[in-house]
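Sequence design from tokenized structure. All designs in this work follow the same two-part layout: the structure record, then the generated sequence. An example of the structure record is given first.
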């Protein structure tokens, strides 16, 4: 793997997306939800998860979210657009973010 590609893989995953829905999905379907770079593709996401967490990935699904428009008084603004990836892990693989056994 060339050094530039390896550096890119280190920046593909922004962080885990922790929510009630993602916790239920993790327990029922062995899926982990990540916030990822907007320009990342499924192949890069799969390689990044396998490289960083040393697990086997079966499938990756992505969703692009448009930032919400928010206002307060006469001020208006827009939240940033972002991308979410649902990563299905192979049987026997798991990622533990909380460090619990």
């Amino acid at each position: 793997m060339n050094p530039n590609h390896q550096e890119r893989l280190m920046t593909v995953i922004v962080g885990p997306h922790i929510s009630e829905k993602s916790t239920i999905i993790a327990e029922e379907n062995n899926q982990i939800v990540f916030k990822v770079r907007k320009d990342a593709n499924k192949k890069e996401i799969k390689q990044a998860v396998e490289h960083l967490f040393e697990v086997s990935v079966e499938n990756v699904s992505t969703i692009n979210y448009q930032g919400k428009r928010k206002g307060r008084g006469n001020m208006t603004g827009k939240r940033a657009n972002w991308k979410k990836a649902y990563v299905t892990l192979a049987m026997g693989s798991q990622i533990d973010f909380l460090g619990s056994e």
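The helical segments are 3-12, 20-29, 42-53. We note this feature because it recurs in several other targets discussed in the main text.
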